[in-house]
Structures are given as C-alpha cells and as structure tokens.
Amino acid sequence: MCDTMVALGNATLDGTVIFAKNSDRQPNEPLLTIRVPRKTYPPGSRLQCTYIEIDQTSETFEVLLLKPSWMWGAEMGANEFGLNIGNEAVFTREKQGPEALLGMDMLRLALERCRNSEEALALIVGLLDKYGQGGNCGYEKKFFYHNSFLIADPGSAWVLETAGQYWAAEKVKDIRSISNRLSIGSRFDRSHPDLIKHAIDKGWCKSEADFNFARCYTDSLITRFSGSLQRQKMSGELLEREKGRITMQTMRTILRSHEEGLEGNQFSRHSLKSVCMHGGFLYGDHTTGSYIASLHEKRPTYLITGASTPCLALYKPFWMVDGENFSFNEDEDEAAVDFWLRRERLHRFVLENKISPLQAYLAERDRIEREVDHHLAETDSKSADEARLKEIIDDVLAAEEKLLDETFAEIKYPEKLGKIRGNLYFRFYWKKQNEKLFSRHGMSRSHGVPSERRI
C-alpha cells in the first residue's frame, strides 16, 4: 500500500515540480536509503534483479533509492538527472504470473537507465512486454500485486497503470495523486495496443465505447478493502486546495495526514484510510518511509524521513553531494538497517506508551523542521557550495541523534514491554510485531545503544 503525488510547476509556489511518496509496507520491513554511483559494464553483462536475471546495459546512472532491505528494486527514488519514480500496488482481474520483474525492479531499472519521464515510461513498458511482472512482494507474509507508477522529471510527469502485461498511461497536466487502485478511466494518452480488445474478449466491457480502464480491469473487492479510494481522495483534495501555492511543506502535511477522527489516536488504532498509514489489523500495512523531492533542474532538494510513521518522524534535508552522511552504499546494508531500526525503536516505544509526554518530543522535532525550512528558504541549492549543503545535512542528522538520545534517556525500564493501548486485536498485533522485530535483528530493547551514524 502506498500513496504518491506530484505537482507540476504550474501548481507550485516556486514553479518547480514537487514529487512525494509514502511507502506502506509490512511494519517490520526496514526501508533503506541507498545511493549507487554511476557505473559502466562490459558487453554481455547480466544483472540479477530480485527474482530473475536480465541483460545489463552498458552504463547506469547515479541513483538514490528508498528500497526494502531484502529486494533489489526500490519503492521510490531519483537519479542524477532529477528523474523521480514511485510505484503502487494495484489489484486487477489479470492473473498473477510466474516470478519475473517486480514493479520495484522496473522502477530501479528506469532510474538507472533513463534521463527523463518519457524515456522511463517507454522503458518500463518495454520491460513489461519483454519480461513481464510477477513474484512475491511481501516480507514476512506473501503478497502479490500488479503495479502503477508516477514518473516525474523537472518538466513533466506521467501516470502509468498496469494489469498484467496490459497498461495505460496519462500525462499529468498540473496535480495528480495515485494510490492502490487503477484510476485511469476512458481517456488516456497511450496504452497497450490490445488493451480494449482484451477487455472485450474477457467480457469485462461490451464495446470500445463502453471501455473504461479502471472499471474494466480492477479487482473491485481487494481494491475496496485497501482504503485506496479514501486516501487518493484525501491527497487529491488537499493538492487541489493548495494548487498554485504547493510547496515541500504542503507535501509534508499531506504525507502526515490522517482520516477524520484518527488524529491524536493514531498510536492506538489502525488506519488503512490515512495517507500516513498505521498498521494494527488483520490486513493492511504501515508507512515505513516517506520522501519529498523539489525538482530544481540543476540540483533537486529532498526531504527524507529514513524512518517509518511520518507523523512521528523528522523530515531531513538531502542533496546528492559528495561526502554526505545520510545515504548508504549498497555494501553497507547492515548499517543502513541499523539506521532505520534506531528510529523504529522510537515508534515502538511510543506504541508501548513509554514516551511521555510525547508532545515534548514532537515540539523539538517541529523546532528542528522549522530550522530545516529556514535552511531551504535561504539556500539556493543550484549554486550553493557542496560543503555548505553537506554541513546542513550533518547538522540536522546530529540534531536528530541528540533528540533520540534525550528521548530514550527518559525511559525508565526500556527492557520491559510497555502497555500498548487500543482494542484487543491492536494490542495483540503490535505485541507480536515488536517481539518479531527485536528477535529478528537480535536487538536489545535498551535505549543505551550508541548511534551508528557516521558523523
């Protein structure tokens, strides 16, 4: 489950394209912030993706990836040209195929091989045709789905929605949000050549005049239970309300938004219908990472949590500059997981009602974010010295570490399970999740573990 959105320059305050996404995954699945440099490969090279091996290209571009710890592909990310992509699980009438490319694999391949949204759209469609999509996308339990994508560069954006090998694409005109549902209707800019004929042959629509991609190809039962209609409506309405003055801060507010009645109770109730998704039920996910990008042509600016639960986490600034200490290399998986787990410990202690008063933590987090906003307003990322940008990143990371240390130091009995609030199933769900998280990673519940950051 996820939510992704974009505002083109004609809808933002400063005229730049702004892209954002929450990645909703199984709650114990670390989402890593990985940076991979540009590379070249000899002719005939092969590439192992999550499940299958494919032909490698001669050169791959530098990429920033927010990726589940166990798979090759990524949930969202960017490359050195400012191309940004986020994917969504969608549930369709088309049958699941054998292990092939995951949507996350196609996303990463497009970032590594394409310079703009048009190239990325063409590449993903080509990969879909050549290799297909399929395979388990779940971490601790199996989960199968097809994919949609929001693809943006500094000047344009596309929505691409798929159902098995079939697809339709729509060019974004100003604002757009996508969620875990097909949303392209009877009007689209490009499509699979047999898209309509296939639906008619299957009996999903009567004629070309009757065709609507979302209506004809959607698995309505699973889609309805996903809560995606409510989430897409929420993000779309908030974007529409701010159209013409959308900023990174607007996106941050949307990514933290909850359904009516949940605010203040989000740590004792699950919510599939909130953009900031909270787990705690038989089905559904939890937001494990959040990401915002302002796509200045010369040097995009990013805000990244590097943590789950956007309403709790700190959005930290990031630029793709030399020597930054936020992202990790691909061979630093253990350190990248530790970075996510340190912040996840905070979330689990909040669930156990051990961070009291929570308002003290949130007040300091908000103060740090106001400083971040000031830095973003005062810093021209296009011409700023890289050393200054690195200094800003390091200062905010250090402030977050200090806040975490001070917050954990207030916990009197970290080794003891705290009292989880909520209904019986919610308490059972998070007790089991906490036990599995600490056991899987051999983690002490103690707050005294020093930070692993390289600052």
Describe the structure.
The protein is of the alpha+beta class and 455 residues long. The chain has a single domain, classed as Penicillin V Acylase, Chain A. Helix content is 33%, strand content 20%. The protein has eleven helices and 18 strands. The strands form four sheets. Strands 3-8-9-10-11-12-13-15 form an eight-stranded antiparallel β-sheet. Strand 5 and strand 6 form a beta hairpin. Helix 1 crosses helix 2. The protein is globular. The C terminus is likely disordered.
Write the layout of secondary structure elements.
Blueprint: E1 2-7, E2 18-25, E3 31-36, E4 39-40, E5 46-48, E6 53-55, E7 59-60, E8 63-68, E9 76-79, E10 84-90, H1 103-113, H2 117-131, E11 146-152, E12 157-163, E13 166-171, E14 175-178, E15 190-191, H3 195-202, H4 213-217, H5 220-225, H6 228-241, H7 248-255, E16 286-294, E17 301-304, E18 316-318, H8 333-351, H9 358-378, H10 386-409, H11 424-440
Antiparallel strand pairs: 1-2, 1-14, 2-16, 3-8, 4-7, 5-6, 8-9, 9-10, 10-11, 11-12, 12-13, 13-15, 16-17, 17-18
Helix pairs in contact: 1-2, 6-7, 9-10
CATH topology name, in short, is Penicillin V Acylase, Chain A
Helix coverage percent: 25-40%
Biggest sheet: strands, sense, closure? 8 strands, antiparallel
- Briefly, what CATH class? Alpha Beta
Low-confidence residue ranges: 447-455
| SSE pattern | EEEEEEEEEEHHEEEEEHHHHHEEEHHHH
Q: How many domains would you count in the coordinates?
A: 1
> Number of DSSP helices?
11
**Going across the major beta sheet, what is the strand order?**
3-8-9-10-11-12-13-15
The rounded distance between the terminal residues' Cα atoms is: 34 Å
Shape: globular
Can you tell me the CATH superfamily? Penicillin V Acylase, Chain A
CATH architecture: 4-Layer Sandwich
**Record field, number of beta strands:** 18
Rounded to an integer in angstroms, the radius of gyration calculated over CA atoms is 21 Å
SS-based class: alpha+beta
Mean pLDDT: 95
Give the DSSP E fraction (strand runs of 2 or more residues).
Answer: 15-25%
